[in-house]
Design a protein that fits this description.
- By secondary structure, the chain is an alpha+beta fold.
- The protein has a single domain, classed as Gcn5-related N-acetyltransferase (GNAT) (Aminopeptidase, 3-Layer(aba) Sandwich).
Amino acid sequence: PDGTLTYAETQEELEWYLHGHPEYPELGLWATIEKATNQFIGRCGLLPWTIDGRFEVEVAYMIAQTHWRQGFGTEAAQAILDYGFTQLGLSRLICRMLPENLPSSKVATKIGMHFEKEISDETGTFWIYARNKL
């Protein structure tokens, strides 16, 4: 969102982070912890979207800049992809990213996704990478 969130918007966002999406409680974001140091280094998880009228589930990964280029994004994304396919039985997963985020597109490619399309909405322009369950 543009600018500062209102109290109600902040409360709604915090509720979502704490309890997940009310319609899809099995989806959400989780802490990403570096095993060697037990340090919080980011978030990863599965997020629901509607893209071009179709329900999609995104493999999301956000790693602190201090931990970039160390393989954590790929490791987290692969674990989330595996969880979505094996534990939740999803048949398709996507990654949604800003076009200028080339490292994220490399992570998506490393976990077997392929570029599918570019989309635009009120929040900006995004690349969609996708993979179907094998």
